[in-house]
Amino acid sequence: MRVGVPKEIKKNEHRIGLTPTAVREYVAHGHTVSIETGAGLGAGFTDADYKKAGAKIVADAKTIFADNDMIVKVKEPQKVEWEMLREDQILFTYLHLAPDPEQTKGLIASKCAAIAYETVTNAQGGLPLLAPMSEVAGRIAVFSAAETLLKHNGGMGLLFCGVPGVAPARVLVLGGGVVGLNSARMAMGLGAEVVVLERSIPRMAYIDEVTNGRVITRYSSIGAIEEEMVKADVIIGAVLVPGAEAPKLIKREHLKQMKPGSVLVDVAIDQGGCFETSHATTHEDPTYVIDNVVHYCVANMPGAAPRTSSEALNNATLPFGLALADKGLEALKQNPHLARGLNVLKGEITYPAVAEALDMPWSDPFGVWAKG
């Protein structure tokens, strides 16, 4: 198969869909890999690195999209990109379609096969292609919160870790999944007081075990959120409903009850955000203030560490990408976990949570295949 990797064009995005190590594996499987010139520079990979791995270097994205059977990216395609997609072409990347009707309609119009990293599953019920970026984002969320708490960044002027005789920050983490656990462990390691709200009792037991009881866990409810938010200096939103829009757990009216200068970090912003007042920001301009509460809602937090993020992402995506390159869409029929990644096929939505979020119809993918 001909596999193409364009340069990411979303603002402040420096990750790349395939590392040189991954390219070498694709080439070893007999595939042709084309990389847009300079695509890896933001993550520290030169064109020479890709040539050494066996890739062809291509001058522009237009050629990448025109000449290849499968496009491998990191972030969701921008308008200029989805307009270059074509029928029967495979797109393998993060999509986050639930809060993005414009992109969804663009992918439908292209009639490509759009496979989302974030909805691929595994035998344990996890999301293996989302997990590595969730680990990175959960950790970066804590660093970002600590920096934002400082007075010159709009925060209350609190030192995250405290000093002898002065209490550290109190951090409330909404959700105990991969993001939440990584945030909790990182905040705990920096000396903060940490509370995690979670609804899975086994997950709370696991968090208690791996943190040796140093993280407080509470069953998540409306009452628990309202009790904890007024005590928190930082709230990290780490909730996820696979493929669907994130629930809004902190409402606009709640902000007036929170501490002035406190910080909200919305890691769920790619799925629409879990705070009612969230809107996507960038690394260049990451924060805004509403009702004296600082909001940090960068939509690609792992993009701040593109080298680490690209390598971690490729470690997870490589076997699935190789399966697609080796077998085409037949790989989805043979692997139900990879099939869960299929969000759009032949002009139809094939992932029910996306359709529900956008109030659009969806079709069973096997029925779409049967239409030919």
TrEMBL record:
Its EC number is 1.4.1.1. InterPro entries: Ala_DH (IPR008141), Ala_DH/PNT_CS2 (IPR008143), AlaDH/PNT_N (IPR007886), AlaDH/PNT_NAD(H)-bd (IPR007698), NAD(P)-bd_dom_sf (IPR036291). Coiled coil: none annotated. It catalyses: L-alanine + NAD(+) + H2O = pyruvate + NH4(+) + NADH + H(+). Pfam families: AlaDh_PNT_C (PF01262), AlaDh_PNT_N (PF05222). The keyword Transmembrane helix does not apply. Residues 149-297 form the Alanine dehydrogenase/pyridine nucleotide transhydrogenase NAD(H)-binding domain. Keywords: NAD, Oxidoreductase. PANTHER family: ALANINE DEHYDROGENASE. NCBIfam families: alaDH. Belongs to the AlaDH/PNT family. This is Alanine dehydrogenase. The lineage of its organism: Bacteria, Pseudomonadati, Pseudomonadota, Alphaproteobacteria, Caulobacterales.
